[in-house]
Structures are given as C-alpha cells and as structure tokens.
C-alpha cells in the first residue's frame, strides 16, 4: 500500500492528497506536525531535505509534489488528468510551473503579514498584489469560457492551481475581478476530493502560531 507523508495545511501536500482521492487509490496517511517530525531520523532517510509531501510505494520513495503527481498519473492512468494534445500538455505543465514558481513565492509576504511578522521593505505589498493580479489574468486567459484551465476535462493544472487559490482568501486575496476564475474555483470546491481535503477555518487560525515559528526559524 502507498504511504503518504504530509501535513493537511500544506498546499504542496494537498495537491497530492486530492490526486490520490480522485484516482481512488488506497493509501496510508501519515500526518507530520512539522514541529520536529520532519527532522526525525527515519523520515530523513526518506526525504533528506525534510520537506513534505513524500510518497512511498513499497521500496520506491518519491519526493516533490509535481513528480509525485506525474508518478500517480502514469501508474494509475484511469481516470486520466493529462490531455492528449501536445499543445494542451504544454499549457498544463506551464500553468503548474507558474503556480509553483510565481504564485506561491509571491504570496509569501502576505502569509507573513497574516501570522504577524513585520513587512519586508524589499517586498512592498502593493507590488505583491500587482503580481498576483498578473498571475490571475494569466490563468483566466487560458480558462476563457472552458470549464477547466486546459479545456473540457480536469487536468493536473486544475489540481495544482485549485489547491492553492482557495487558501488565498485567508490572506484577503479576492477573485472578485476574475469572475470566470471564481466560477471555476467554486466548481472545484464541489468535488468530493476538495471537500475532504478542505481544512476548517478554526484549524487554520489555530495554526498561525506554528507557521509564524517556522517562518521565523527559516529567516534566522
């Protein structure tokens, strides 16, 4: 049986969690607290970078969430979350990478503000919001009038973006000026995999002290 090491609050973990549920794959869920569990000697044997998530399939260990998504897609091809057309595959992968390389780093100053850390003068919030608008414009351009980001069928792009955007409401980021993206997000939130992995607001609020401690430690 697959072993899935993760923490429910992590968007990196959630995208794999959603994928496992969408694929209806049986797996053992191992929750790490990130208050030291990730530095446990046994876990470091699996993931020497002490990050999450980690997937273990018998004697095979895989880290990095995008790599895990590709592995699950190849090993469990039904239902498929990868389009057939070459251009569509390129768009899907591009959207995944924009999310990981552009959106997530851009929102970090807002997360720091939310948990009570001082604003970084090198990253003014006005510029942060402008960058997020640019990214949302990019998503909405490809979404258009389609039900999903890469056309008629849900793909890995929807899983990657769709597990990040719902968390942004806790940083006062709105989709009000991106109605198509808002409708798309609401459709995803109706899926059972999104419902099962959605964390209660009170749980998220209670986690801010832990997140603050982790971010503070990283900056030291």
From TrEMBL:
Q: What organism does the record attribute this protein to?
A: Lyngbya aestuarii BL J
Which PANTHER family does the record associate with it? Answer: GLUTATHIONE S-TRANSFERASE GSTA, GLUTATHIONE S-TRANSFERASE-RELATED
Q: Which Pfam families match?
A: GST_C, GST_N_3
GST C-terminal domain sequence ranges:
85-208
Single GO molecular function: transferase activity
Tell me the protein's name.
Glutathione S-transferase, C-terminal domain protein
Keyword entries, A-Z: Transferase
Q: Which residues form the GST N-terminal domain?
A: 1-80
Highest taxon, organism lineage: Bacteria
């Amino acid at each position: 049986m697959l072993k899935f090491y993760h923490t429910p609050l992590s968007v990196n973990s959630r995208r794999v969690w959603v994928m496992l549920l969408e694929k209806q794959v049986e797996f053992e869920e191992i929750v790490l607290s990130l208050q030291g569990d990730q530095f446990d000697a046994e876990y470091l044997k699996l993931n020497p970078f002490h990050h999450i998530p980690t997937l273990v399939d018998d004697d095979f260990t895989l880290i990095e969430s995008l790599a895990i998504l590709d592995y699950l897609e190849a090993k469990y091809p039904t239902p498929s979350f990868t389009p057939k057309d070459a251009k569509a595959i390129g768009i899907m992968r591009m959207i995944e990478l924009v999310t990981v390389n552009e959106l997530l780093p851009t929102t970090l100053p807002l997360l720091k503000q939310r948990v009570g850390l001082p604003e970084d003068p090198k990253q003014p919030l006005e510029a942060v919001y402008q960058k997020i608008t640019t990214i949302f414009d990019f998503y909405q351009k490809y979404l258009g009038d389609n039900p999903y980001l890469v056309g008629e069928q849900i793909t890995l792009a929807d899983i990657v973006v769709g597990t990040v955007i719902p968390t942004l409401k806790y940083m006062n980021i709105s989709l009000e000026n991106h109605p198509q993206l808002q409708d798309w997000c609401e459709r995803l939130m109706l899926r059972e995999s999104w419902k099962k992995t959605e964390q209660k607001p009170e749980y998220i609020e209670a986690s801010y002290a832990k997140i603050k401690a982790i971010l503070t430690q990283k900056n030291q």
